[in-house]
Amino acid sequence: MTRVDILAIAAHPDDIELICGGTLIRSQMLGRTTGILDLAAGELASRGTPELRAKEASKAAKVMGVQVRENLGLPDGGIQNTPETRARVAVVIRRLKPTVVITHSLYGRHPDHPIVAQLVRDACFVAGLKMVEPSVPPHRPRKVLHALSFREDNQKPTFVVDITDSFEKKLEAIGCYESQFGEAVQAGEVYPNGEPLHDLIRHHAAHYGSLIRCRYGEPFYTTETMRVEDVAALEVSTF
Questions:
Q1: What percent of the chain has pLDDT over 70?
Q2: Nearby residues of 84 by Cβ (< 8 Å), 6 or more positions away
Q3: How many domains does the chain have?
Q4: Which of 18, 169, 207, 235 is least buried, going by the fewest C-beta atoms within 10 A?
Q5: How far apart are CA 209 and CA 92, in angstroms?
Q6: Is residue 171 part of a domain?
């Protein structure tokens, strides 16, 4: 049975590559096992087809080195946080037994994104309740991370992951979605400024990296305060 250390859950195929692909690749480089759960097939997208996008998602998964990628088949543009959808997501969480789950920001431009963020939080809790879908043993992840990439809500990240060594591979994974991003100047939460999409992504990643004094980074938010054992070992210089 496949188990993963980190499970990324997002609304549509290509969301994960954009908001936390570098972190998944970096985690895999560090020896962690990773997986992706896409909740909808992207049938409302203006370009491509769900079938083509599924092939692109599979190709991107191989580039990122994820152990498993699944699609729950929820309605694109109509994902809801209901007892039924929470239970369906919880079953996957129980089966893959991740320690860490990554999902969307609690805010978002696409209507599905903030709904999925709360759905995933609730599903992680429900996954620990043995009376919900009792045929599958309960498992509750230890940590839920919200990816803040490209958000403009002025929400300060709890931390930023250094993806300098994995950034080019992240761009390669994004490039697998030719139907969505070929000649594109915007995508998902990435607002356009007239530049090619890859340049926009590079500039954003460079900004996040500058927050921790590295070349490229991906920002994350946690609702809980992070713990520090030794203040003398804290990284990132003040000056």
A1: 97
A2: none
A3: 1
A4: 235
A5: 32
A6: yes
SS (H, E, C) the chain: CCCCCEEEEECCCCHHHHHHHHHHHHHHHCCCCEEEEEEECCCCCCCCCHHHHHHHHHHHHHHHCCCEEEEEEECCCCCCCCHHHHHHHHHHHHHHCCCEEEECCCCCCCCHHHHHHHHHHHHHHHCCCCCCCCCCCCCCCCEEEEECCCCCCCCCCCEEEECCCCHHHHHHHHHCCHHHHCCCCCECCECCCCCCHHHHHHHHHHHHHHHCCCCCEEEEECCCCCCCCCHHHCCCCCC
Does 101 fall in a domain?
yes
Reported as a single tens digit per residue, the pLDDT across 174-203 is 999 988 776 766 677 777 788 888 899 999
Single pTM value for the model: 0.94
Q: Please report whether residue 239 resides in a domain.
A: no
CA pair distance 208, 202, nearest whole angstrom:
10
Taken as a whole, the chain contains a residue count of: 239
In a domain, 107, yes or no: yes
CATH number of 126's domain? 3.40.50.10320
* Domain span including residue 201: 6-233
**Beta pairing class for 217-221 and 159-162:** antiparallel
Beta bridge partners of 68: 35
Distance CA 50, CA 44 (A): 9
**Average pLDDT in the 83-96 region?**
98
Q: How far apart are alpha carbons 150 and 14 in whole angstroms?
A: 14
Q: Are 130 and 123 in contact (CB under 8 A)?
A: no
| Total Cβ atoms within 10 A of residue 111 | 12
